[in-house]
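Aim 2 progress update. The chain analyzed this quarter is reproduced below.
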Amino acid sequence: IKNMKINLFRNRIWNLKSERGFTLTELIMIVTVTGILSSTLVIPFTTGIKQATRPEIYATATYLAQEKIEELRSSGYTTTSGILGTTSVNVTKKGRVYTEQVVTEYVSHSAGSFSAEASSTEYIRATITVSNTTIPDDIVLWTILAKDFYDPDPV
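Predicted structure tokens:
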């Protein structure tokens, strides 16, 4: 029994010696390879996050343009004819700056199209352009305002 105990003890010591860990060189190589692989994944990940905000920016720019169109439509021809020309305003929404440009001009209608006129006509075209430095394309909406025939004081 004593020899059996000694052999069992020797087997345990042998098992402990045979269970090696990683060497310092192996650990350095693992850390280096992991660092290189993770850095190649970070760039596409951050690019994806930046591009994921583009639809939100387009939606906000479209909303701002539609809001301005509705404002001009509710003002009508008479009020808008008093502010003909080009105006540009910076608008901040959700921490982003948008440039809103409004161009209002008299237009005439013939052969299914509108052309700019220098003098007063029955129509005003309002073109709203909203831009942001993050998106490559501007959002451009336009509407035609007809002369208010029911207005008792037309201009």
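The longest strand covers residues 96-110. The beta strands are 85-93, 96-110, 113-116, 123-131, 139-146. These observations will guide the mutagenesis experiments scheduled for the next reporting period.
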